[in-house]
UniProtKB/TrEMBL annotation:
Belongs to the PPR family. P subfamily. This is Pentatricopeptide repeat-containing protein. PPR repeats lie at residues 142-176, 177-211, 213-247, 248-282, 284-318, 319-353, 354-388, 424-458. Keywords: Repeat. The keyword Methyltransferase does not apply. Transmembrane segments: none annotated. InterPro entries: PPR_rpt, TPR-like_helical_dom_sf. PROSITE patterns: PPR.
């Protein structure tokens, strides 16, 4: 490896925003909230009231009231005859009201923090705040909160945590629903743990109020399709037929996409023909987008264009995503004239350019190493107020790496940190790819460790990049270790839905 490129990149990444704090360190905001709780739990000061006595031998003592403290005379302040209860001093009532209002304000603030962590997909922080909230007597978690957390844990590749949270919910006496069970089942499906997902399905069948519906089966169908276990898809369709659950268009689109990605074009055509003849699952714009994406990703532009015309003749109108698919397909084939034509057509029909539109254009220039046009597109994207996302920065990092401009990889990573761009598996793959291209294997390993510390599960693309880099340097022992780790990941590790297509990463 070249020493110059290695040292420069290593210095750069050592100060980047990717340096992570250990997971066992708590969020400082969580510590502040915990301190606040401790203060609120301290006992209030006791207020003593001294009763005055009157006798002929003693001088009558008068209470000296502070300004604004003397109670106004009202019907409620006149002593009643008989054994009436003592009235609580107004000063004490005010303290209680203040404590109650402070508790409400605290609850609202922490609830907002919980919602913010969920929105940012920070599952560990979200669980910490949620546990803090549950300790308060005034907070009663609702079904919707558990639903959001289960979905978050599922998307974050934490199915075991999701199951633990689900069990805690049951222990607290909250009744399960079909939707909550489906969210738990989806968490296992996202991690490619199909057997566990099927066990959740069997539990649902035995609970009268939690019966699986078309959405439950659709999620399972998708998991089986993604795992190429099409024999299980057939059994699921049989179960649906026995339960009189009719597959909807979404279910059919999932199977259609699965057959297409697996290269089973005959089965795909059969499903599509059935949709055209059906009255309950007719093809829609998602069907159109699925077929166009299939041929576009395979680089079969002519087939893509042919199917586009067929769907238009069937009466299906394109949407923004449809045009973005066309732009992406043309960009990968470097057909910039057609890519520009589609963008102009979008403007003509008043279809807005979205982040995906710009990302597809940036990606096209990124793969070509055309930094000038890539940066121009990114600047235009920001000038129009369009929010960049993780894919934007993945494309920028790969573009600079493809062009050999490694110092700009650092500035791009730092900018992503300032903009609080989520650092998922795809993001780390792009940085690891840049390190490999710079032949800085030491920094590549450091990023790989930080990736796992950040709870971002490596995928097949991660291992492919690193194995190619080690092979190039003849480091067979490192290759062997990674191959073993990759096999373990394939068996136990979660499947990453956010990873980019392998073709976007060229061999280093």
């Amino acid at each position: 490896m070249s020493s110059s490129s290695s040292s420069s990149l290593s210095l750069s990444f050592s100060s980047s925003s990717l340096i992570l704090s250990p997971l066992h360190q708590h969020n400082p905001n969580v510590k502040k909230l915990a301190t606040f709780i401790t203060i609120k739990r301290t006992k209030p000061k006791v207020v003593f009231r001294c009763a005055s006595t009157t006798s002929s031998s003693s001088v009558e003592k008068k209470r000296h009231w502070k300004v604004g403290e003397y109670p106004a005379i009202s019907e409620s302040s006149i002593p009643r005859s008989g054994n009436s209860k003592k009235k609580t001093p107004i000063k004490n009532i005010k303290k209680k009201l203040d404590r109650k209002n402070n508790a409400k304000a605290w609850a609202n603030t922490v609830t907002e923090a919980l919602s913010d962590h969920i929105d940012k997909k920070q599952w560990l922080d979200a669980l910490q705040v949620f546990e803090m909230l549950k300790e308060q007597h005034f907070y009663q978690p609702k079904e919707g909160t558990y639903m959001k957390l289960l979905v978050l844990l599922g998307k974050s590749g934490q199915p075991q945590r999701a199951h633990q949270l689900f069990d805690e919910m049951l222990e607290e006496g909250l009744e399960p629903t079909s939707e909550l069970y489906t969210a738990l089942l989806a968490a296992y499906c996202r991690s490619n743990l199909i057997d566990e997902a099927f066990s959740i399905l069997e539990k649902m069948k035995n609970l009268p109020l939690c019966q699986p519906d078309v959405y439950t089966y659709s999620i399972l169908v998708k998991a089986c399709v993604d795992a190429s276990r099409f024999e299980l898809v057939d059994s699921l369709y049989e179960q649906m037929d026995e339960r009189l659950i009719i597959p909807n268009t979404v279910t059919q689109n999932i199977v259609l996409s699965g057959y297409g990605k697996a290269g089973k074009l005959d089965q795909m055509e059969k499903v599509l023909s059935g949709m055209l003849e059906s009255t309950t699952s007719k093809p829609d714009v998602w069907t159109m987008n699925t077929i166009l994406s299939l041929f576009g990703n395979k680089g079969q532009v002519e087939m893509m264009e042919r199917w586009y015309e067929k769907f238009r003749n069937f009466g299906i109108e394109p949407e923004t995503r449809t045009f973005n698919i066309l732009i992406g397909a043309y960009g990968k084939k470097r057909m910039y004239d057609k890519m520009s034509s589609v963008m102009e057509y979008m403007r003509k029909l008043s279809f807005p350019w979205t982040s995906s539109t710009y990302n597809n254009v940036i990606e096209a220039f990124s793969e070509a190493g055309d930094v000038k046009h890539m940066e121009y597109t990114f600047d235009q994207m920001r000038a129009e107020g369009m929010k960049a996302d993780t894919k934007t920065f993945c494309c920028l990092i790969r573009g600079y790496a493809n062009a050999g401009i490694f110092h700009k990889v650092l500035s791009t990573v730092q900018l992503a940190g300032r903009l609080e761009i989520p650092e998922n598996t795809s993001f780390y793959n792009a940085v690891i790819f840049a390190c490999a291209r710079a032949e800085d294997l030491m920094e590549m390993e450091r990023v790989f460790v930080r990736m796992k510390d950040k709870q971002c599960q490596p995928d097949s693309i991660t291992y492919c990049i690193m194995v190619d880099a080690y092979k190039k340097e003849g480091m067979t022992d490192k290759v062997y270790d990674l191959e073993q780790e990759k096999q373990m990941m394939a068996v136990n590790g979660p499947k990453n839905d956010d990873c980019l297509e392998r073709e976007t990463y060229v061999h280093v």
